[in-house]
Write a structure and sequence with these properties.
Elements (H helix, E strand, L loop, with lengths): L2 H10 L30 H5 L8 H20 L8 E3 L3 E4 L4 H21 L12 E6 L2 H8 L13 E4 L5 E5 L4 H16 L7 H15 L13 H11 L4 H7 L8 H17 L3 H10 L5 H9 L3 H9 L22
Parallel strand pairs: 2-3, 3-5
Antiparallel strand pairs: 1-2, 4-5
Helix pairs in contact: 4-6, 6-7, 7-10, 10-13, 11-12
């Protein structure tokens, strides 16, 4: 029996409307942003309510309490209202059964431990409050919620996303098979655990994709890809040029609605894996790589310019980052 079959058997006897165990929370005065399509707290205003003499435990209780109240309010947007589930380090809002939510939270906890071990000195536990995962049962709801954090326009489709705004949280869509949702969670949780670093988009995504592939190596195998390796090589050769490579370095190509998005993720994964060959040097590079300064960090810590990484994948070309051409600014890896 496959894992998916076992889970289906386990879930089959669950009650349709589980009631999670509730935890007593300290009172938190919520502040809300007006004129948005979903309940979104004004986290900046809530941060101003912090007291300088609060202990780390009090800060954790305050932010976890605020996140719990927020998810309760979010859950009231559906009929029947969705419950909030909780584990040691996570809060989960989901319309799934109790058993589905327990399995998801257990996977989140394991993934958190593994990512911290896989990326020592890069991934971090720092921050206050529990991690938040929201699963949307309806694709329209998912994109309507995401639209509160992005300007209007066309963007690539996704099955998961980390929102690096206010109280950082990540999203998935329900309806994914179990073997599909686990890699999404691992990828987005990797973003969450490097949130403290001001990484350029390509490095942030490269770290997340390679973390996902480390835990799920079958996804990195050519048979799991949409295109054959020779097809991807041809697509890369046709797409990247003097102008599009600047979109890659600045982060703009990661939100393109065409193949440029897919090619950006693939290129980021390949060059990040190359850069991580010497992990100690890579870690020093990651800790210094801030936006437009990533080129200088590469030469100082990796010992070679960034264009060398691109040349290893695409061959010779005009691949040097040129921040002066990034007229629209630099997107961060989480695209918030």
């Amino acid at each position: 029996m496959t894992m998916l079959s076992r889970l289906k058997t386990m879930w089959a006897g669950d009650k349709p409307e589980p009631t999670p165990v509730r935890v007593q929370r300290p009172p938190v005065e919520m502040r809300w942003i007006a004129d948005v399509s979903w309940p979104i707290p004004d986290w900046q205003a809530m941060a101003q309510a912090q007291q300088s003499d609060w202990t780390e435990r009090t800060l954790d209780d305050y932010w976890t309490g605020g996140a719990y109240r927020w998810l309760e309010q979010m859950g009231r947007q559906w009929e029947p209202h969705l419950p909030v589930y909780e584990s040691e380090h996570f809060l989960l809002l989901s319309g799934g059964s109790r058993r589905e939510c327990e399995v998801t939270l257990a996977f989140c906890e394991r993934s958190r431990r593994r990512i911290l071990q896989f990326l020592p000195g890069i991934a971090s536990r720092q921050g206050h409050g529990k991690h938040v995962l929201i699963t949307f049962g309806d694709q329209d709801d998912y994109y309507d919620y995401v639209s509160n954090y992005y300007p209007s326009g066309e963007f690539a489709m996704s099955s998961g996303m980390f929102i690096d705004a206010g109280y950082g949280h990540f999203l998935t869509q329900e309806g994914l098979r179990y073997e599909e949702i686990e890699p999404v969670i691992a990828h987005e949780l990797a973003h969450c655990l490097v949130r403290h670093l001001p990484l350029p988009a390509w490095l942030n995504e490269g770290i997340a994709v390679n973390t996902e592939h480390h835990f799920f190596p079958a996804l990195a195998h050519p048979h799991a890809q949409q295109y054959f390796p020779h097809e991807m090589t041809a697509k890369h050769a046709a797409f990247w040029n003097r102008d599009t490579i600047q979109e890659f370095w600045s982060g703009k190509s990661f939100v393109r609605p065409d193949d440029g998005c897919m090619l950006s993720y693939d290129l980021a994964a390949k060059i990040t894996k190359l850069a991580a060959g010497d992990f100690n040097a890579f870690r020093r590079f990651v800790l210094r790589a801030e936006g437009a300064n990533a080129g200088a960090a590469a030469e100082g810590e990796l010992g070679f310019p960034l264009r060398n990484l691109i040349e290893a994948v695409l061959g010779e070309g005009p691949w040097d980052p040129n921040p002066e051409t990034w007229q629209e600014g630099i997107e961060r890896g989480q695209f918030a």
